[in-house]
Design goal:
With 336 residues, the chain is of the alpha+beta class. It has helices spanning 2-22, 97-102, 107-123, 128-133, 135-150, 169-242, 246-261, 274-289, 301-333, and strands at 23-26, 30-36, 39-44, 47-50, 56-58, 62-63, 67-70, 74-77, 83-94, 155-166. The longest helix has 74 residues, at 169-242.
Length: 336
């Protein structure tokens, strides 16, 4: 009885173990390859799967999600023989679990080595400046080569990104000096352009101001000339309308002679011949304008002659004084 119980318990335990080994639960986005008697049988899909115990061999699960792998910086020689350290990031996904398991021993190591070699081939055909400014070109070329090469491994390369490009320290210093020089150059150019623009604007302003001043001065001169013309016309009309005596004109002419001699540019002054006529006119004016004093004593012919001589002498003295004044004014206007 006890032996049968033990045998039954062993049988139940074996059945449980067989059932457990026959049932495989695969998580979502995972896949497991099954070999039957050493040969690939099928790929288990996510969910509950049944296999033959002790005949089917189930391999570890393969992740079907997109994976991100960051590789260590690799030294790469550019076309101008400079060594740079390039750090890459690879985004890939397993599309065929069977090929990823049977076509390549370690697809991660294979992808890493293929990335390094392809990167050296691509960067080796570029100089340093182009390498630093052509990341998109390098990424697209890397992705194309890796996608073609890894297709038979059951992989799909989605993206390849260059995370960092580190040139040597000496090259960094030279690049910093070059960038600093370029910034200084741009600053100097901008400053010169600003000064040039400022000078141009200033010159334009001065030009417009000069034009406006000239126009204002011209308008003022025109108005002044018009005023003088009108004044002369009015004086001329007044003179002709009042019909002045030639004696008055002669006297005015004598008054203007000293003013003519006082000009700052007069170094030589010539008394015109009309002065004699003016003096004669003044003499006659004074002679005719002398007051006639009533005589207290009956006048005789000799007294009349004496008075006439005195009047003539005084008129001559007045004319001589006027001529002397005119000559003195002329000498004052002439430099010694």
């Amino acid at each position: 009885m006890e032996a049968s119980v033990i045998v039954g318990a062993v049988i139940v335990l074996l059945v449980v173990l067989v059932v457990l080994s026959a049932v495989r639960i695969v998580p979502q986005a995972r896949a497991r390859n099954v070999e039957r008697l050493g040969r690939f049988q099928r790929t288990l899909q996510p969910g509950l799967n049944v296999v033959i115990p002790f005949i089917d061999r189930v391999h570890p699960a393969i992740d079907l999600r997109e994976q991100v792998v960051s590789f260590q910086p690799q030294p790469v020689i550019t076309e101008d023989n400079l060594v740079v350290e390039i750090d890459t990031v690879l985004y890939f996904q397993v599309t065929d679990p069977r090929a990823a398991f049977y076509e390549i021993a370690s697809y991660l190591q294979a992808v890493e080595q293929l990335t390094v070699t392809t990167l050296r081939n691509v960067v080796g055909s570029m100089d340093l400046e182009r390498t630093l400014t052509s990341r998109d070109t390098i990424n697209s070329q890397l992705r194309g080569v890796l996608d073609d090469a890894t297709g038979k491994w059951g992989l799909r390369v989605n993206r390849v990104e260059i995370k960092a490009i580190d040139p040597p320290r000496t090259i960094k210093d030279a690049m910093e000096k070059q960038m600093r020089a370029e910034r200084d150059k741009r600053a100097a150019i901008l400053s010169a352009e600003g000064q040039r623009q400022s000078q141009i604007l200033t010159a334009e302003g001065d030009k417009q101001a000069a034009v406006l001043r000239a126009e204002g001065q011209r308008a003022a001169e025109i108005l002044k000339a018009e005023g003088q013309s009108r004044a002369i016309d009015q004086v001329f009309e007044a003179v002709h309308r009042n019909d002045p005596d030639p004696k008055l004109l002669a006297y005015q002419y004598l008054q203007m002679l000293p003013q003519l001699a006082q000009g700052p540019g007069n170094t030589f002054w010539v008394i015109p011949s009309e002065v004699t006529s003016a003096l004669q006119g003044v003499s006659r004016a004074f002679t005719e304008a002398l007051p006639k004093v009533p005589a207290t004593v009956p006048a005789t012919a000799d007294d009349d002659a004496a008075r006439a001589a005195d009047d003539a002498n005084r008129a001559a003295e007045a004319a001589a004084e006027a001529a002397a004044d005119a000559e003195t004014a002329g000498r004052a206007g002439t430099p010694g």
